Automatic annotation (TrEMBL):
Compartments, record wording: Cytoplasm
Source taxonomy: Bacteria, Bacillati, Actinomycetota, Actinomycetes, Pseudonocardiales
Family annotation (InterPro entries): aa-tRNA-synth_I_CS (IPR001412), aa-tRNA-synth_Ic (IPR002305), Rossmann-like_a/b/a_fold (IPR014729), Trp-tRNA-ligase (IPR002306), Trp-tRNA-ligase_bac-type (IPR024109), Trp-tRNA_synthetase (IPR050203)
Gene label: trpS
Name by which UniProt lists this protein: Tryptophan--tRNA ligase
Keyword field contains ATP-binding: yes
Its biological purpose: Catalyzes the attachment of tryptophan to tRNA(Trp).
E.C. number: 6.1.1.2
Length: 331
């Protein structure tokens, strides 16, 4: 069974939502699946990027994945642009996608609205189709992502099914692998919104590579509510519930265990402990990232090896697709 997933190199650091929603699952799935993980630089350029910064962030992203436990001996860890078949399959799939269908993608609508639709790139519009190509080119069975990717996954499934109907069984239809408890981590300052790098306040976002003291401070100033009771109630106590989710995911204690442990205690106690488990997690993580970045030559070699493995699989799918749609073989 194959697994594929990707993450954008569009920030100086991954954030806690990326880790708890998706990357933790990437690491776990290595135990049971054939895994393909990539840094999606092609997706990154759908909005303007400074070339030097993009190159740096791509390496820092790869280093973070290694530091989180992606094992390059088990997983093919690579950079999307190193495998040209993604872009090649994307074109074919664009020709199977309705304009209206692509127009309904809510992430496109949100991002385009933020930039003004006139200025949004055509790449931003076709973004989810490239994502479908990423997944289908590996014949992936499962795709570990956070809740915000569900609609893109649905498009990938639809495209796979449509192509299979039209041209005969070609693609595996992928399933999203979304772990409910941590599928959506919320902004610490606005617990109705998802934690995101485009958050309105930087205090709502925990970056894995920021100074751990700063993270601890953000946790301590997280928005809660005027009540006193520490209970998991996402509707009524969104902020407290988010903190419980983060604590539980990092400490391994279940939510009911935590609720029992905090009986009679206050929000300040909970925040102090969440800050502590977070600092304990990020401090050694940051050391590992630094050590991967100390040897760029080795890091680049790991990525080259990953791309080679990935390409072997991707090329096979692409040649089947080209044949199915009636392209003449190269003789
Ligand atoms: P990206 O780079 O925005 O985010 C990477 C992963 O983090 C998850 N995530 C969250 N999970 C829980 N709570 C949050 N607040 C939160 N914020 C982000 C995302 O769901 C994602 O899994 N389009 C993708 C990248 C991509 C991809 C792919 C993913 C490109 N090709 C193929 C899977 C398969 C994206 O922008 O993720």
């Amino acid at each position: 069974m194959r697994v594929l997933s990707g993450i954008q190199p569009t920030a100086d650091s991954f954030h806690l939502g990326n880790y708890l929603g998706a990357l933790r699952q990437w690491v776990l799935l290595q135990e049971t699946h054939e895994t393909y993980y990539m840094v999606v630089d092609l997706h990154a350029i759908t909005v303007e990027q400074d070339p030097k910064v993009l190159r740096q962030r791509t390496r820092v992203s790869a280093a973070q994945l290694l530091a989180l436990g992606v094992d390059p001996d088990r997983s093919a860890l690579f950079v999307q642009s190193h495998v040209p078949e993604h872009a090649q399959l994307s074109w074919v799939l664009e020709c199977q996608t309705g304009f209206g269908e692509a127009s309904r993608m809510t992430q496109f609508k949100d991002k385009a609205a933020r930039q003004g639709t006139e200025h949004a790139s055509v790449g931003l519009f076709t973004y989810p189709i490239l994502q479908a190509a990423d997944i289908l080119v590996y014949q992936a069975n499962e795709v570990p992502v956070g809740e915000d990717q569900r609609q893109h996954l649905e498009l990938s499934r639809n495209l796979a099914q449509r192509f299979n109907r039209r041209y005969g069984k070609t693609f595996t239809v992928p399933e999203p692998h979304i772990v409910k408890d941590t599928a959506k981590i919320y902004d610490l300052q606005d617990p109705a919104a998802k934690m995101s790098k485009s958050a309105s306040s930087p205090n709502g976002l925990i970056e894995l590579l920021e100074d751990p003291k700063r993270s601890a401070k953000k946790i301590r100033s997280a928005v809660t509510d005027t009540g006193r009771e520490i209970a998991f109630d996402p509707e009524g106590k969104a902020g407290v519930s988010n903190l419980l989710t983060i604590h539980s995911a990092l400490s391994g204690q279940s939510i009911p265990e935590l609720e029992a442990a905090y009986e009679g205690k206050g929000y300040g106690d909970l925040k102090k402990d969440v800050a502590e488990v977070l600092v304990e997690f990020v401090t050694p993580f940051q050391d590992r990232v630094r050590s991967y970045l100390d040897d760029i030559a080795e890091l680049d070699k790991v990525l080259a090896r990953g791309a080679e493995r990935a390409r072997a699989v991707a090329a096979e799918t692409l040649s089947l697709v080209y044949d199915r749609i009636g392209f003449l073989p190269v003789v």
